[in-house]
Amino acid sequence: MPPDRLAWLVLICGLAAWGIIWGLIDTRRIIEAPFLYATGMVLILCPQMYVTAANPTKVPDDAFWVHSVMVLLCSLALYYGYGGKTKAPRKMPWYWEIKDRRLFWLGFACGATGSLGSFQLYRMGDIKEWRGWPVYWYTLSTIALPGISLMVISFVRSRRPYQLVMALCASVFPFLSIINAGRRSATIVLPLIYVVPWMLQRRHVRPPRSMLVLAGAACFVVVYAFPFWRDRFSEAGGAAQAISDKPLGEIVEEIFSGKQDKVLEVAESMLVIGARYQRGRYEWGYETIYNSLVELYVPGSLIGHDLKDKLRIGDGVSNDWVAEVYGVPVTFYTTKNGYADVFSQFSFAGFLVMYGLGAAFRRIRDQANERQSGRAVIAMCFLVTVPAAIAYGAIFLGLAMQVPQFLILWLACRYCTVRRPLRRVRPAEGAGRPRNLYPPNGLHSPALAGAVRP
After folding, report:
1. Is residue 125 part of a domain?
2. Which burial class, exposed, middle or buried, applies to 235 when counting CB atoms under 10 A from its CB (0-12, 13-18, 19+)?
3. 411: domain range?
């Protein structure tokens, strides 16, 4: 391994280790942005960076170091944005209380609609061309997970058993996508949907570190082994036969030795960053979002594909031009990571986006944990996977892809929360100024006692 690449690898692995250690010191922090971000680095970024560092022919030197600099800047910016000095939230004479019945029925509607979309996709079987109805049904299926999240929040607040039953029923198709198709995103997101509201409610609970280590090992298997196994899950013999034919040890050895030809998200992101750096081709925050909205939500079967092509700016969402720089084609279906995404928009200044994300997540966390804002609780449950996705998912492309989820989040915050005044407690004679009785946990009933704050 070249010494310069080894130095970059050690530095970035150190940044990831810092976030993991920070979270394991107090395991309540496992749902906070630095730990989740570091988890994504450990599972996705660091192993694939090792492969590209140990096999210099996979990625040119300039692409490797530009990507490494961007990872360093973004990591420091996100950590500082989250952990740096923040402005204390302004004390208001009111707080947002969750209306659990409204929240449940909104979640039920989303879960039922998403299940309908998933059912139609299962009926279609193996889809050869993603146009027309398959795209429409897939878009509907994506709102199942937000619906489950809303139902779980409502259940842990009200403890009505039928709400949990409905949430479990809506989880059937996401669970089938794990068993039959080996979907990595559903494998990681579905457990978090149930864990995060529970941890926000039971604020004294600290998961044991041994359980977190086992969960990390399971996530590693999901990330690297499922892409090899999932194509054979639906064949005769199922998962057991697929695992027997391709053992986990063989998969790991092939990946880390560089013998495996399977596409690596980080390697392709390095190529995109290097090509952008050489050409000075940046999009300034609007081109990717606009083209993605056109690609995802403009029905070409209704208005005509020629007109849809004319609506795009430049090459649309294609990265075919990258092959002109390095002579290596970039696969269109592999998502480029968050570092490549922000660099494609703003060059090295893209690290400011990461700083903003860190500060935003810190504010949401403070509002959910300390002030117990019902809206912040809902937002935290919806957005908890975003920091972990930076290591393998595009931020600006994700904004376009998650439009239905953001719409559901807005509906939940707008119509399923109500503003309540803070109660004030009269002090005993000579006891000093009055104190506000802050609202109880956003997941609890307002009848429960809250924390007294000055």
Report:
1. no
2. exposed
3. 3-87+94-101+209-219+237-421
Question: What is the distance between the alpha carbons of residues 435 and 408, in angstroms, rounded to a whole number?
Answer: 36
SS (H, E, C) 2-38: CHHHHHHHHHHHHHHHHHHHHHHHCHHHHHCHHHHHH
Structural domains of the chain, count: 1
| In a domain? residue 37 | yes
The pLDDT tens digits of the residues spanning 306-319 come to 787 777 776 655 66
**Distance (Å, whole) CA 213 – CA 392:** 21
Q: Structure tokens of 324?
A: 């002109």
How many angstroms separate the CA atoms of 323 and 330, rounded?
A: 7
189 in a structural domain: no
> Quick check: is 14 in a domain?
yes
pLDDT, tens digit (0-9, with 9 covering 90-100), for 213-248: 888 888 887 777 777 776 666 665 666 777 777 777
HSE, CB side, 13 Å, CA atoms: give it for residue 288: 24
Residue 275: count of CB within 10 angstroms of its CB: 25
Structure tokens at 32: 């906070």
Task: Please list, in sequence order, all residues whose beta carbon lies within 8 angstroms of the beta carbon of residue 304, skipping any fewer than 6 positions away.
Answer: none
CB 290 within 8 A of CB 74: no
Q: Lay out the sheet containing 435-437: strands in order across.
A: 423-425, 435-437, 452-453
265 three-state secondary structure: helix
